[in-house]
Amino acid sequence: MITVSSNSILTKLPQGDFRSRCQALCTTLRKAHPQYDWIGLYWVDGDHLVLGPWIGDQPTEHTRIPIAQGICGAAVREEQTIIVDDVNSDPRYLSCFTHTKSEIVVPVYADGLIVGEIDIDGKNIADFDTSDQIFLEEIARFIGREWPGRW
Ligand code: SME
Fold it and tell me: What's the whole-number mean pLDDT along residues 50-74?
């Protein structure tokens, strides 16, 4: 459940290049929403997703994900936000951290095409609802507007 506006997050971002602003965005999002346990941005690279800026207690082994796989791949294939309340009962799930229970993946569009996505893990069952979806889709539109054409 989200109670903070995307504007209050986005106006706090430092000036700088796209990558450093995206890294700052991940950090700011996690500070504002402690239930966002691990936050990563993946960029589309042909038929794969490549991990960009991320924030969390541990790195993920999934730094390159085939679009054919995972909840991350499904969000690109289905061109929509995916919320999974219980990752352990979703056969698409690619496991990263044993404590992860739920996940939300939000596509980032630039000029009508998916160029990447926001991937967030939660430690509790059903950590994400439609308020998170609305909030994160606003954040994704912001990233899409700033998208420089390559990652
Ligand atoms: N769980 C994702 C993989 C990425 S990690 O959560 C960081 C998936 O199923 O695609």
Answer: 98
